[in-house]
Amino acid sequence: MFNNFLRENKISAAILTVIRLYLGYSWFTAGFHKITGGFDASGFLKGAIAKPVTGPDGNMVYAWYVDFLKDFALPNIDVFNFIVPWGETLIGLGLLLGCLTTAAMFFGLVMNFSFFLAGTVSHNPTDIFLGFIILTAGYNAGRYGLDRWVFPFIRKTTKTNTSKHKAAA
After folding, report:
1. What's the whole-model pTM score?
2. If pLDDT is split at 50, 70 and 90, which confidence band does 166 have?
């Protein structure tokens, strides 16, 4: 019942738009400030490796993630210095414009969980909660945005391309 309200109701779409705009603004400004102000993730990664998330017994909880940061992310810091600010900015744009909303929110949640696994709590729990609401709502979260025109265009384009391929076969 709640899923139907979230996914189909126009009042829900209006509420989702407010949530989407809030998250979009947060993502966009975070990314834009990193792009314009310079960004280097190496300090954050070194801190996450040096002081990983520990459980009550003092042992690392996400040893696999620390290994990922140490063995992959840090050696490829230039890639991450590009991906993080541009990813945040594009996620923000997608959410602000309501364009490919569910894809933007999916990647936003991936980044939120990445920050969370590295030990940054901040506003991540709230963003994750709101992000799952947007993701669950699907198309309805972008109903009052560009998704209203983008999705029919994609459906029409893929249907046309599929018809052309079937006719050629």
Report:
1. 0.88
2. low
